Task: structure prediction
Amino acid sequence: MLTHAFPSYRGVMFYRCLGCGAEHGTEDLLYTCPRCGAVLLLEDRRFPELLEKGGAYWQDLFDVRAAAKRPALRGIFRFYEITAPVLEEEDILYLGEGNTPLIEASPDLRCLVGRAFAFKNDGQNPSASFKDRGMACAFSYLRAAVRQHGWDDVLTVCASTGDTSAAAALYAAYAGGVIRSVVLLPQGKVTPQQLSQPLGSGALVLELPGVFDDCMRVVEFLAARCRVALLNSKNSWRILGQESYAFETAQALDWKTDKVCVFVPVGNAGNITAVLHGFLKLHDLAVIDALPRIFGIQSHHADPVYRYYAAPETERVFRPVEVTASVAQAAMIGNPVSFPRVRALAERYRAVAGERAFQILQVTEQAVMEGMLTANRHGHTACTQGGECLAGLRAAVAAGLVGEDEYAVLDSTAHALKFIDFQNLYFADAFPREYGVKADPSLVNAPEALFIPEEREGLDDDAFVRESASRIARRLGLTETDGG
Ligand SMILES: *Cc1c(COP(=O)(O)O)cnc(C)c1O
Ligand SMILES: [Zn+2]
Result:
């Protein structure tokens, strides 16, 4: 019988190197292969045993578990057996992450875009971005390690375009005890809202001149020399947690992912890695019959993955790019650390579902901003990266890449409020030149003052109310009826 009990299954996890294929045990927290330096992915040696249950078993189990009352099973660990089935219930840290809503585009928006689609709002995670999914898993693993090894001091560090540090600081603040948090940010390259988050969580916030890629090189250098727990997406435990995005998407569609196109913004490429790996797992388990098509989206100001796949297959060479100012600032990365993971998984993905099942599209900064504003004028709460996905869908429709019978799921990776300064710049048509964004007046909005402050002087409250109402009525072209 299926129950809400904490699962009894335990896997045997190991790191697989995507460079030399070596396998390494999980006793130590590894970021790269000790043999060849390449990136890793976590796998479960017992996964083949899970296949024997059949897809329907897993569908039913995950559906029953969607109503679980145990905090440890309410978030990303609803999918415990295919996430990190080595953690004990007491180690699992749950702050309300995951289980984010899939919100269908309204009829007006669907009409405008020409396709049926939905946003999955990962801005509704506790620190308002999808990074919480990965942190919940990485911190649960850390808590297990602290308990097992009796460590008395764990310093977590990460470089960040803003949201990784917000999530890391939040989970570290909750975990407390021996776990401390340091975050490294590119000075002036995160939004004030994002900066306020690790500060509010009490993390030590260190700023460096430069862009994210510079901070990333510094933390990697540091992690290779000092005992720190690196929380960037090189940490494969984060990738595992982020796979829940794919699991939830499939579940919200009642496990029917044929004719589905999933749009994901690509920065450091951890998110698209997790999405590819997650859907591949569900497909291996026969939980879904068909792999959805995956579209990775990049801005023309930070597009190394796009450039790689745009080249003819025989001429593909990965080259980091120098990024320029981007409103999709959380994805403004020129040398994505997870690129080798994407390359390996995309190959597997295309082998199962064909060339068209994995594509990378490029969009303009202008289209990203207009994607965000258009989405939000139709009842969504998309961040700029969510806007990037809508821009990607529109580009895909224009290029004939998405059929009328297909359904798109767009990842709004964070909440609109984190990126609201870009909306402000747009509304004031005040973008610095380097962004290359001009305001379209039809998308601009601004408050209108009904009074200049001095006008209120000398009016008593009744007169103020009457005068205000009459100005509003004039503004709206309302006619006053007697009495009312
Ligand atoms: C981190 C982040 C991204 C980019 O994800 P990667 O895993 O780095 O590709 C996109 N959007 C938001 C809001 C993010 O925080
Ligand atoms: Zn290796």
